[in-house]
Amino acid sequence: MSRQPARVAVLAGDGIGPEVTAEAINVLNAVGDRFGHQFVFSSGLIGGCAIDETGAALPSETITVCSESDAVLLGAVGGPKWDNPTAAVRPEQGLLGIRKALGLFANLRPVKLVPALLEASTLKPEVLAGVDLLVVRELTGGIYFGPRQEASADDPTAFDTMLYTQPEIERVTRLAAEAARGRSSRLASVDKANVLASSRLWRRVVTEVVAKEFPDVQLEHVLVDAMAMHLIRRPSAYDVVLAGNLFGDILTDEASMLAGSMGLLPSASLGNALNSYGHPRGLYEPIHGSAPDIAGQGIANPLAAILSAAMLLRHSLGLEDEAQVVERAVESVLADGLRTRDIAWGARRIVGTAEMGNAVVQRIMQ
Ligand code: NAD
After folding, report:
1. Residue 229 Cα, ligand 1 centroid: separation in angstroms?
2. Closest Cα partner for 183 from 215, 218, 211, 210?
3. Domain spans of the chain, in order of start
4. Residue range 156-204, pLDDT digits in tens
5. Rounded CA gap, 138 and 256, in Å?
6. Which residues carry out catalysis?
7. Where are the beta strands (DSSP E) in the chain?
8. Which pLDDT score is estimated for 260?
9. pTM of this prediction?
10. What's the CATH fold of domain 1-105+274-366?
11. Which of 113, 189, 282, 361 could pair with 131 as two cysteines, CB 3.0-4.6 Å apart?
C-alpha cells in the first residue's frame, strides 16, 4: 500500500439513497482489495433524514465531515414527507448548502451509451451510436443566483437576472478545457450570444481562456437553441459541452435521456479546493432522486451510484485505471443481460439492488 487511506464522506440521504450508496461503497472496497488501496468511510446526515434528526437539512457536523474528506459520495435527498414547498427547512437546501460549503462550481455529467442498452433510449440506434458526452455545467452563478423580484399585489412584475462575472466564467472554462484535454480535446461552449449580454461576456471569456491557456483544445461556440436540436439529431458529434447554469440544467436533462434511464447516470461536482492527494475534493452522486416510490424494496438500480464512485476514483483520487475497471465491470454485467427493473429491456435476468452490486464487485475482482 503506497498511498495513504482515502477518506470518503458518505451522505446517503433519503429514499433509495442508502440502498444505492451501500453498493457504491462495496465497489470501492472491491477496488481497494484488488489494487491495494484503503478507503476510510465516515457518514453524515443530509436532507430529510437530517431534518428529522437535527432540524437542519445540512447539520454543521456534516460540513465538517466533508471538509475533512478527500471526496464526498452522496445518495439522494427528499421525499413526500418533506415535500411542502413553503416549509422553512427543505431537503434540497442540504444539497445547495454542501455545494456552497465545499466551493463546488462545476457539475460534470458524462453520458456514455452502453451498447447493451441501445433499446432503452427513445432515439434510433443509428443516431445514438458512438455517443460519449461530458456536459460541464456552471453551478453557482447565472440566473438562479442573480438579483430577482417576486410579483406582488402592489407590483405584478417579476424578474430574474442572468449575471456572470469574468472570474466565474474563467474557472469553469479551465475545468472544462482540462477535461477536454483528457478526452478528444474538443470543447463546445453553449450560449445565447445573439441575444444576451451575459452570453456575449461568456463567449469572449471562454475564447480568451482557451486561446491563451489551452491552445491545443479545439473550441466551437454553439447557440443553446441549436445545441438542444443537435443533441437529439447528432449527439455523437460532441465530446465536452460547456454551459452556464440555466442552459446546462436543461441540456443535461436532455442529454441524460440519450442513455435511456436515469438509474445509469453519475455526476461529479468539482471546485478548486484540493484534497490530500492534490486533486479536487469533489462531490459524487447519481443524477436520479430518492425514488420514494421504490424505496426500501431492494429493487433500485445501483449503477448510477457505482459509476459515481468510478468518477470519484478518477477525479478526486487520480485513479484512472481503477475508474475504468469499474466502468468496464458495469458494461460487462449489462452485456451479460443482468438488469434491474427500470432497465428491463433485453434482460436475461431481473435482479435487485444488492445482486446487481455484487455482480459488479465480482467482475472487478476477476
Ligand atoms: P426520481 O429520480 O427520484 O424518480 C423518478 C422515477 O425514476 C421514479 O419512478 C423512480 O422510481 C425512478 N428511479 C429513479 N432512480 C432510480 C433508480 N436508481 N433505480 C430505479 N428507478 C429509479 O425523481 P422524482 O420522483 O422527481 O423525485 C423524488 C424525490 O427525489 C423528490 O423529493 C425530489 O425532490 C428528490 N430529488 C432529489 C435529487 C437529488 O438528491 N439530487 C434529484 C432529483 C430529485
Report:
1. 26
2. 218
3. 1-105+274-366, 122-258
4. 999 999 999 999 999 999 999 999 998 999 999 999 999 999 999 999 9
5. 17
6. 144, 192, 225, 249, 253
7. 6-13, 39-43, 71-76, 104-112, 132-138, 148-149, 159-160, 186-191, 218-223, 240-243, 266-271, 283-286, 338-339, 349-350
8. 73
9. 0.93
10. Isopropylmalate Dehydrogenase (3.40.718)
11. 113
